[in-house]
Amino acid sequence: xxxxxxxxxxxxxxxxxxxxxxxxxxxxxxxxxxxxxxxxxxxxxxxxxxxxxxxxxxxxxxxxxxxxxxxxxxxxxxxxxxxxxxxxxxxxxxxxxxxxxxxxxxxxxxxxxxxxxxxxxxxxxxxxxxxxxxxxxxxxxxxxxxxxxxxxxxxxxxxxxxxxxxxxxxxxxxxxxxxxxxxxxxxxxxxxxxxxxxxxxxxxxxxxxxxxxxxxxxxxxxxxxxxxxxxxxxxxxxxxxxxxxxxxxxxxxxxxxxxxxxxxxxxxxxxxxxxx
Length: 276
Description:
This protein is an alpha/beta fold. The protein has helices spanning about 5-15, 25-30, 40-50, 65, 70-85, 100-110, 135-145, 160-165, 175-185, 230-235, 250, 255-275, and strands at about 20, 60, 90-95, 120-125, 145-155, 195-200, 215-220, 240-245. The protein is built from 12 helices and 8 strands. It comes from Pseudosporangium ferrugineum.
């Protein structure tokens, strides 16, 4: 069984280093001329999948925008996960779950067990109940060839107050998370399957990412203010492992499929020029 890290490296080598979010929020649905309901959600989501699933490395649906429509929205999420994976694109489900014990195990089963209709290739999680509390997700990912991306250094203004706080040992909270994920990837052949989320707009972080040996998701490029040229300052020698993520910059080009594809191609070219 190939690991997620191996599959991700193969995908980015073949298709370029680009992740595109599927974020059907109300303003974007309106921009596309769609209604803010299940019908609009369905049309939006399937258009993005049809346009991009055969040309980008990763699609990243944001679960919250589907959950807000209840069971019918979740059914659409299940469908686009299935269709995307069948088309050969990796699916990173943006759920940012974080809990303990049997609850975390249930989340892991929902999103990383192939028997679940919501199973994705990888998920995002929050470590603020302790990185060890995420062990069920790490174990499920290992068992099924999945991946886990852990929040580390986010671009929201409230983030540094917690992430840059110092622990009793002198490290920041973020560096503690970084170091624990680095340990999980130790000994991995090629790229490890456990990654970090590091915002593309945060600039020089003062944190050491050099030992992670896993994928580094960089959201916030394009309309959110991030520029591929700034990735070097954030990631340094780990730039090769960066998975740059665009959402609005690409999605705003819809609903025309050709325009969506052109926007994704421009983003991929800009990232490839920096990352290689």
